[in-house]
Design brief:
Blueprint (H helix, E strand, L loop, with lengths): L1 E2 L3 E2 L1 H23 L7 H28 L1 E2 L5 E3 H22 L7 H25 E2 L2 E5 L1 H23 L10 H21 L1 E5 L1 H4 L8 E3 L2 H39 L9 H18 L2 E9 L2 H8 L1 H18 L4 E7 L2 E9 L1 H13 L5 E3 L2 E3 L3 E8 L6 H17 L5 E3 L5 H17 L5 E10 L5 E12 L3 E3 L1 H11 L2 H21 L6 E5 L1 H4 L4 H11 L7 E6 L6 H14 L2 E7 L6 H4 L6 E4 L1 H6 L4 H16 L3 E4 L5 H9 L4 E2 L10 H11 L3
Parallel strand pairs: 14-15, 17-19, 19-20, 20-21, 21-22, 22-23, 23-24
Antiparallel strand pairs: 1-7, 2-3, 4-5, 4-8, 6-7, 9-11, 9-14, 10-11, 12-13, 16-17, 16-24, 17-18
Helix pairs in contact: 1-2, 1-6, 2-3, 2-4, 2-8, 3-4, 4-5, 4-6, 5-6, 10-11, 16-18
Length: 683
Amino acid sequence: MVEITFVYNYSIVLISIVISIFLCVITLDLLRRVRGVKSKKKRKLWLAASALMLGSCLWSMHFISSLSLKTENEAIYNGPIMFFSLFSTITLSYVAFYIFTLKKEATFSTLAPASVLLGAGITIMHYSGTYGIVTNAFIEYNYLLVVISFVSAIGLSFISGCLFAKTIKESFSLFHIPAAVILSLGVYISHYLAMKSMTIYANHYEVVLLKPKKWEFFIGSNSILIGIAIINIIIMGLMHTLSLRERRTHETKMHYMAYYDQLTGIPNRMKFQSTLKDAIKRSEKKSHQLAVMFLDLDRFKVFNDTLGHQLGDRLLIKVSERLIEKAPSNAMLARHGGDEFILLIENTDESKVKEAAEQLLGLFMAPFVMNKKEFFTTISIGISMYPDDGKDVGTLMKNAYKAMHLAQKSGYNNYQFFVHEDDKIHDRKIKIEHGLKKALHNNEFELYYQPQVHLKSKRIVGVEALLRWKHPELGTISPYEFIPVAETTGMIIPIGKWVIQEACKQIKLWQSIGIRIKIAANVSALQFEDQQFIELIDETLSQNLLPSKYLELEITESVMQKINQSFAIISKLKNIGIKVSIDDFGTGYSSLSVLSSLPIDVIKIDKSFVQKMMTNANTASLVKTIIEMGSNLNFGLIAEGIETEEQANFLMQNGCQLGQGFLYSPPVTKEEIEKLLHKENVI
């Protein structure tokens, strides 16, 4: 037995070191990606890729280092042991990396076991790999050095892990390189300590007789180098493919986040603007018109604040689904933000856009069902046309937005085309805002009255008081124009107080001449929630010595969203003896099931439903449902906006007994309504 003396080829040693550091850098980069994925499948994929890369690194380094040893003996490789050395280090590396990335932040409880497993993988690779090189040799071990090689692998793996843990969340950091160098250093110190721990003896007389057994084979040095290079190139190619795939997935995700709404999944404002820009170029080239339609859910803020953002988000999703399904086929839909949507229609004209707007309004006749409850909502639509209302993206969207606000000021649930404002229109808005502050003092307001009739007998059973403003310079101004301004400026509170007081005075005056009839007065949401509201009603009735049965208050659906507060206020009104009705029912968010829990007396079917029910089957069905459910819940029913006998007959046939509209009388002055009341002999 002769001891084998090793002489190292330092050129090959240097090559193995460079390859090892390079592969360790790639390993850490792959391991970093584990933090960025949420899918368990992808997490396992990147862990496996990291373990495979480190395994190939150790395997390559071990055998390249073995080639650096100059001996007289030819090496014979044992196939199963070679496979075991590779498989064991990959497996232990996978488990080590799994533990290392188990928590969001690396701690000693994860770093320590991970380092032990990684050190074990490095050590097993070296000793099993050396054992797999079958020679006519006998090996003696210095077990102290064996332990030191194992401990050094663990210690340097731990230090490398500590450095890497500081920057694992970053895409790249200078700390990655020293972490990779220290990990590679741990591999090399462990390897050469392992080689130092072994004393190998060879029998020269048996060398010539040495032949490969089953699963054993000779490989030349050049073949090993070429083979290792090919294996590493293949592995690096696979890793590169994974990186490209991840990059494409990331880019796709970023593109989706940049151009699509996260809640509804439809295109967002940025995508819409990009599409509109291209559409303008096409329209300019072909001399076509296009339309931008701005959609806003009416009173959505009240719905969201009262019922919660979660239910509000569900409503937005359902709205987007309905718009996608039913909107014109040539329209592009996007979510502009919040409760605002926007549509683009190319190659169109004003008549086609009107049809599209009517179609969109019709989509909201049917309720939205959430949590087994029905919720009604409407939309206001603003429209701008290319090229008349703008020739660029910003102008068209801005003008469509302005038109939408005009639609809201006109009473919601309608559409408006953009109107080019001139200085006169701007001056008018300023005059309205300033004039409101003087209108009460100058007695510019007046109440008009519209009769409410029994549809079958056509006898007047009550009147609704409607506010009118005669501006000294601008003439008569529509409530649709000045009420929103009054609500914004806070003037609606004193104006609403004047309406209640004036209505009660008129009731008392009529009673003094023998006319006994109730008056229904409208109350804004702001006035309804005012702390002095109940006191105002009580004091006004007392001052006029007026029985409460002659005054009825009409409130909008929006106040129903604050159900607890509304219940308390309505209950106090009921204690006084005041009847309460819901005006414009079906245009807000409350449903009959919600109203059933409140002490409401009457619901008024909105005029938009009455006007469309004879030409739209869905609207007719909705009106029938409202009447049926209202009757079942013992609500009084009044239909607004009746203009034809056909409408009146339809309502009577389906159970609605009361109504108002131009068929019977438009809103008239107190003198004219007195003539009608005397004629009807109202007592």
